[in-house]
Design goal:
Layout (H helix, E strand, L loop, with lengths): L3 E8 L2 E8 L9 H14 L5 E6 L4 E3 L4 H6 L2 H19 L5 E5 L2 E3 L1 H4 L6 E5 L5 E2 L2 H4 L5 H7 L8 H5 L6 H7 L4 E3 L2 H17 L2 H26 L5 H26 L1
Parallel strand pairs: 2-3, 3-5, 4-6, 5-7, 6-8, 7-9
Antiparallel strand pairs: 1-2
Length: 261
């Protein structure tokens, strides 16, 4: 099965590319899948006018890095994967066309990371959560993540985001982490398409050039954080700390579910 399913839709003012996560039962990501997602998004930026990140999974939009993969990976592959997990937020911020994230389920850790640079994020209401879970599980939280979400999260809640609070859809909407919520998938898609159609209706040259200029200025600022964040990619951290954290996640999430079944 392909890690990502792509569908296209012609709208009145342009073409939308839908990218569906279908990586695993939890929609987690391996190192190779991170690279594939980054390259796919850039490829689609030449074939469409707007991208929607979404999922058909009943529970998970995208649940971050795959803990089983990271536990069994070599030190070199762990470094490569976490390097891309930091790099991808910068690379997606640099996309030449807008994209929208449609949270059809949990959007935890890396799921929020790949959605943070999007123009808009919309979330399905219900028992779903979103947030940066890195610090609570014992992982380093790259500063570049916070620098991106500062653009839209209400300042008084940034500490909660940094400390790894998991937000319900209503809470995420209240603090600005998402831009709208809906009670069912049909209404969620309507929110996404209403905003997509609005963006596509704007004078293309004026909008894209203005967007590019604004993001270019921010990108130069983000690059400083990117370089500093990658200093964490030390062999001793990848060899000693990461396996401990991954074992804890596997026991808490995957093994707990197996025991409950």
């Amino acid at each position: 099965m392909e890690s990502f399913n792509v569908k296209f839709e012609e709208r009145q003012n342009g073409k939308i590319a839908y990218v569906y996560f279908q990586t695993s039962p939890y929609n987690t990501l391996t190192g190779d899948q991170l690279y594939e997602l980054r390259d796919l998004m850039w490829d689609l930026s030449e074939k469409s006018d707007l991208i929607v990140l979404t999922s058909d999974n009943e529970k998970y939009f995208c649940n971050g890095l795959d803990p089983v993969y990271l536990l069994n990976a070599s030190v070199q592959d762990r470094m490569r994967t976490i390097d891309m997990m930091i790099q991808i937020i910068y690379d997606l911020y640099d996309l030449p066309i807008p994209y929208i994230a449609e949270f059809t389920g949990h959007a935890m850790a890396g799921g929020l990371v790949v959605s943070a640079p999007a123009e808009y994020r919309f979330m399905l209401n219900g028992e779903f959560l979103t947030g940066f879970s890195e610090i609570p599980v014992g992982l380093f939280l790259p500063s570049i993540y916070m620098e991106v979400v500062k653009d839209y999260v209400t300042p008084r809640y940034l500490r909660d985001v940094f400390e790894g609070k998991m937000f319900t859809p209503k809470e995420a909407l209240e603090i600005g982490l998402v831009d709208g919520i809906a009670d069912n998938r049909e209404d969620l898609r309507k929110l996404v398409l209403d905003k997509a159609d609005h963006l596509l209706s704007l004078p293309k040259k004026a909008y894209l050039e203005s967007r590019l200029k604004a993001r270019k200025q921010k990108k130069e600022w983000l690059k400083r954080f990117l370089e500093k964040d990658k200093e964490i990619l030390r062999p001793e951290v990848m060899e000693n700390d990461v396996p401990i954290v991954m074992k804890g996640i596997i026991d808490k999430v995957i093994n707990k579910k197996k025991r409950s079944n």
